[in-house]
């Protein structure tokens, strides 16, 4: 048997992309968008001849006409229309990626923070002014979302989450505080409307935390206690607002009701117990590696009102 050796290694490597220079592509895209070489030249601060040569280079490289030229005007051919659509998408994506890289660079003046909506509205947002006074060089891009997060694909520097879901080991998790929770309502509702009788209350439920009351009853050995009425809302934030409006009692958690308890807009007459969950900062790497993230994390951790 004779062994033959194939010296053709062309399949061992990916084919080289047959792409025109980026400058020619941007010239083509501008000309196609304006349907005019002159307007494209004005936008890109080039001459009419430069645009024409760039388009000619594109046509020569691809081997088809991209524009039909009639009566001193240019019109996209079918091939030109296809290339224009793809070129626009590609240049937009490239521009967005470059912007995202800039925004998430450690020297960027932006810091993108993803935070659970209720925590953002009831605790974080009222305090961001104080953070801005300490760090006027940073602009916080606050995005409201809860649950699992992909920091890279969602272009976020930090996520603040209640740790009631699995968090990938790829992330750095910095606990902020242990969550405690209990029934909350207004002083008047507790003292006068229901006469300090929990079973006479309207229990307010959140569809995002549907088992909050059940877990509290188990933790406090009050499984047999039942409410006079129950009402459901789409979000935890709404249940707390309803309690503040004297519509019933809701399970409130720290730090979400911290300001309300401090001002006595709400009270927790039966106390608060640990839920077994923490609030935490989630980052791609140790916060100390990025001065923007370090500044924000230090501020969060050092803010006594969250503890």
UniProtKB/TrEMBL annotation:
Q: Which UniProt keywords apply?
A: DNA-binding, Transcription, Transcription regulation
Q: GO molecular function terms here?
A: DNA-binding transcription factor activity; sequence-specific DNA binding
The answer on whether this UniProt entry bears the keyword Cytoplasm reads no
Every HTH lysR-type domain range: 20-77
Q: Does the keyword DNA-binding apply?
A: yes
UniProt GO BP: DNA-templated transcription
Which PANTHER family does the record match to this protein? HTH-TYPE TRANSCRIPTIONAL REGULATOR, HTH-TYPE TRANSCRIPTIONAL REGULATOR TRPI
Q: Which family does it belong to?
A: Belongs to the LysR transcriptional regulatory family.
Q: What name does this protein carry?
A: LysR family transcriptional regulator
- Species the sequence originates in: Marinomonas transparens
